[in-house]
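Long-time lurker, finally posting.

We've been working with Protein kinase domain-containing protein (Ditylum brightwellii) and I want a structural starting point before designing mutants. I don't trust myself to interpret raw outputs, so I'm hoping someone here can both generate the structure tokens and explain anything notable. Sequence follows.
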Amino acid sequence: MTSEEHTAETGTYRWMAPEVIRHESYSSKADVWSFAVVIWQLITREEPFSKLSQIEAAGMVALEQARPPFPKGTPKDVCLLIERCWKENPNDRMASDAICIALAKMERTLDASDNLWLQEPYGHPVYDLSKSKVVCRPKPTTSGSENKSAPITRNRSFMKMFARKGSGGK
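Top reply, 14 upvotes:
Generated this for you. Predicted structure of Protein kinase domain-containing protein:
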């Protein structure tokens, strides 16, 4: 493990990178993940996965590669930036300096209507709307072998993720 990798869990599940939730080694790329969620939250003015418990939200992110949905009208460049920051593989996420460059470019290239959209004081909620979600990427598929009707909290591997290492709990 390098001096830049960490293993202790810290943070709040809704903003936590998948590798941190799974108690894997992680680097500053976990912060890039959290940055993406904060940007998403600034756009929507909502908590990610607000209809789920913290544990359910964490399980969806860590095991099913779920991401919060983008509101209708999200500028394409904003979607792309966020998506490049919350990629599943930390090595595929943007570096901090690349994020700064992308934000500076975006500031110069977004048109007036996109800027107005981003400045909406009440945000663009996605969870309080009936069915007007827009996702900028397809949902990941899973193999058909697991029982999709079983509640996620009953999944043993899911619950093991939340047991503290060395706590003696099963």
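Before you design anything, note these points.
Helices lie at 18-21, 29-44, 54-64, 76-85, 96-109, 112-118, 156-161.
The chain has one domain: 13-136+143-161.
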